[in-house]
Amino acid sequence: MIDIVNKAKFKIDKEIVFQAVFDFFAFFPAKGDLTVVFVDEDEIRELNKKYRKKDKVTDILSFVDDGCEDNYWGELIICPQQIKKQASEFANNFNQELIFMISHGLLHLLGYEDESETGRLEMEKIGGDFMKEYYDKS
Question: What is the CATH number of the domain that holds 37?
C-alpha cells in the first residue's frame, strides 16, 4: 500500500507518485507499505535540522521503518517547492524531477547512501538507469 499525504500548498498529481513508486518496485524489487508526505519548505527545513543536523531546505528525506510495524517499509518526506526549483537547474520538468527524487528516496530506504562521492555516484547512476528504463521512451 502506498499512502500519499499532501500537507504542502502545492498541487500534486497523486497518480504520477503512485506510478513512479510502482515502476521503481518493478525496476528494483522491494516489498512493503510506504508513506509519501509532501510538506512545505519550513517543515522540511525543520525536519532536516532535527534529523540530519542541517539547517536548510532539502528536496527529500527518507525514513526507514524501525521494525515496529509489519510490512511497513518507510516514509518519504518531499518538498515540492524545492523539487520545482531543482527541476529548472537540471533541465527537467517538475514531474521528471519529482520521479527522479522519489527513486532517490527509495534507494535510501534500500540502504544506499550519498554522503560519500562513491555512494552519490552510484545512486545517480541507478536513478538515471531507472529514468531511462521507465521514462525515456523516445
Answer: 3.40.390.30
Q: Which domain holds residue 103?
A: 2-135
For the segment 103-132, the average pLDDT, to the nearest whole number, is 93
Numbers of helices and strands, H then E, in the chain: 5, 4
Name the burial class of residue 136, with classes exposed (0-12), middle (13-18) and buried (19+) by CB atoms within 10 angstroms of its CB.
exposed
Q: What is the pTM of this model?
A: 0.90
* Residue 11 burial by Cβ neighbours in a 10 Å radius (0-12, 13-18, 19+): exposed
